[in-house]
## 1
Amino acid sequence: MPPTARPVVLDVDTGVDDACALLLAATHAGLDLRAVTCVGGNAPVDDVVRNTLTVLQAAGRSDVPVARGAERPLLEHPRDARHVHGEDGMGDIGWPAPTLRPDPRHAVELLRDTCIAAAEAGETVTLVTTAPLTNIALLLRTYPAAARGIAEVVFMGGAVQTGNATASAEFNVFHDPEAAAIVLDAAAQLAIPVTMYGLDVFYDPVVATAEADELVAVGGRGAAELAGRLIQFQCERFGRDAATIGDAGAVCAVLEPEGLTTQVLPIRVELAGHWSRGRTIVDRRDWSGDLSHDPHGEPPVRVRVALGVDHQRYSALWRDTILGSGGTS
Ligand code: RIB
Ligand code: CA
């Protein structure tokens, strides 16, 4: 791994597209994957741990510690997304169970230890979250000193324009709205820059079935074959000839931020609305009169919001990296 590789930690609810994100983070030479932490979301947390270990084993990354985190949201009732990701949470593709074992620490302790160790070494890690933010909320409120070792949080979640879990809310934020609100508040207080990779860009980078077939043909039960099988699963499930790399786009945004069109904007998370709970309310108004007469006042939190993406660039980055990673786990 080159000395210039960027230290990253992923917090995941593996999930088909979390697996796509992990495969990129585990195989790209420009990233130094220090740890992966798991949270309940797409699937129950124990399935998330198993799926995450499966992916890292396929990528030949037994060196990366994986820890089990929050089983359920801070307040909201737990829901899963197995209608999207399959019963096992990773496409029911029948991949062999992992032989790797998780780290004995809780996810919050592994996050704390990894961030503080980085700070003590004069480094910082980029925290990429592709899941409900429960672990991150617990980390920042329990161990705020960990912030010294965090360069930035890039979170897949929220949206400016739309929802998917509901008409108004994106799944990761809807799953644990309190956690999302806490993370945004704590990051602002701790001066941690935040980038939101939301639904406005999430679906755009896609990989075609023909490309997936090429990945599967590499064989050897490695990263490429697994990546191809995951794309094939999504294409079959949704009856399409291409599938989004989803969460992997947030890792692409770390590698090539110039592929995003962004703006730093005020943001709030709706916690009380009946039909709008979990909505990320991004304020795009640009007339001072509106703002100065707004009884809500300006939110204390501003994040860098992804408004557009060079989707062909990110699709090629993901596909070419994993295709080039070879076929053996
Ligand atoms: O809304 C999309 C997000 O919800 C992705 O992270 C996907 O994996 C699911 O967790
Ligand atoms: Ca996810």
## 2
Amino acid sequence: MSLRDVSPQGVNLQALIETAQALLAGGKGLLAMDESDGTCNRRFASVGIAPTVEMRRAWRELLLTTPDLRSCISGVILVDETMRQATSDGTPFVEVARNAGLLVGIKVDTGAKALAAHPAEKVTEGLDGLRGRLQANFAMGARFAKWRGVIAVEGERLPTSACLEVNAHALARYAALCQECGLVPIIEPEVLMDGPHTLARCQFVTEAVLRSVFDQLALQGVVLEAMVLKPNMVIAGLSCAVQPTVEQVADATLQCLRRVVPAAVPGIAFLSGGQAGPLASDRLNALHLRPAAPWRLSFSFARALQQPALGLWAGSDSNTVAAQRALMHRARCNRAALKGEYSAAMEGE
Ligand code: 13P
């Protein structure tokens, strides 16, 4: 039995399916701007910005008020703090986003915590009270949500099946609750790129992770047509001595996804995971030069969209325009990649 059969609380499945399709339509992607306070502060520290509520608010205002963002971006993923904040002239961010033609999403997990009895592995928490938080976020205007599970790779030792299972279970319970509450779940199981593992090892692990996730989604009755998958690309670990070509990444990623992601899933929006912006665009582009896949392929980047803009802003109002231009540049590069029209020459524009 699935949500489709029981339709509890009169869930409007058609509306969910339309939202999922709208997130993936028009050759656009998602802007993830849902860093937890700690992660946001760490990124601020790397460019000398003070780790304050006000600076986080100002940064999110800069992102959301970037002119013409909607030409490349269909939706934005906010974090709870941003969901409740407003621009300096008092307009709630949710209203700003919606007026700018952007669907509003909300990160609802409460972070990856140490997994008991499994050193160096994590399980994402946040299921307690989730139904109430999803209902409240829907009432505030959110139409989709995000939950990220993280999977570390270490030789043949990690990940353990325990780590795969608990994270897949949590993702599926989160996704079922989202659909019950009228929100499209973005399902993000991220195989981390830290370490010396090879492309082949990343492909093996990513396939195992996704297999586990789709088993759990079936078990929990999640409607595949009303979700978006947000996986890592299949790449070699950052410190692997042999780095694959862009073509090898595209081939390994597609082979992996074709083996495990049902065609009923409307779309796959990749995370960037710490890849440099131009490299992420190049790899996304290569994925679109391959024979058509059964799902739409898109992006849901945080760092690969924001990083250059954050460095240029450096916390100063006088740099806002330059930072917004840098954000739009990365957004346009990724939009071009969705048509297979990105090239390194765009980086000079
Ligand atoms: P990155 O693109 O920086 O990996 O962030 C995506 C994201 O949403 C992490 O949860």
